[in-house]
Amino acid sequence: MKHDFAFSRINFILLAVGMAIVILGFLLMSGKGTDLTHFEPAIFDALHIRVAPLVTLAGYLFIIVAILYRRKAGKGAASHLEGNETEKK
């Protein structure tokens, strides 16, 4: 008896890649902050303001794709499904 899980191995790999992209986006957003005595203008760089949020958004979208990804049924799976339909009739 074969167990059919909701996620396959490829789903977990894609999910890990998406999580790595999100972490990369958050690391790009981080930087030296401003304190009470010194203003750091680097917090307004294009990397922190534009690029990092887009990388993070791309990572989240990749995670959604990884969750919804389903491998196409091969020839063996199609014949297995046809066999179940004939048994029900």
Structure description:
- The protein is mainly alpha-helical.
- The chain has one domain.
- 65% of the residues lie in helices and 0% in strands.
- The longest helix is centred in the middle third of the chain and has 23 residues, at 46-68.
- The protein is rod-shaped and about 70 Å long.
For this entry, give a set of tags:
rod-shaped; 89 residues; mainly alpha
How would the blueprint of this fold be written?
Layout: H1 9-29, H2 46-68, H3 75-88
Report the span from N to C terminus. 22 Å
Radius of gyration: 22 Å
Number of domains: 1
Helical percentage: 55-70%
Order of helices and strands: HHH
Q: Biggest sheet, open or closed, and with what strands and sense?
A: none
Content of β-strand? under 5%
Average pLDDT rating: 83
Apparent shape: rod-shaped
Structural class: mainly alpha
Provide a compact summary of the structure.
With 89 residues, the chain is mostly helical. The chain has one domain (9-88). It is 65% helix and 0% strand.
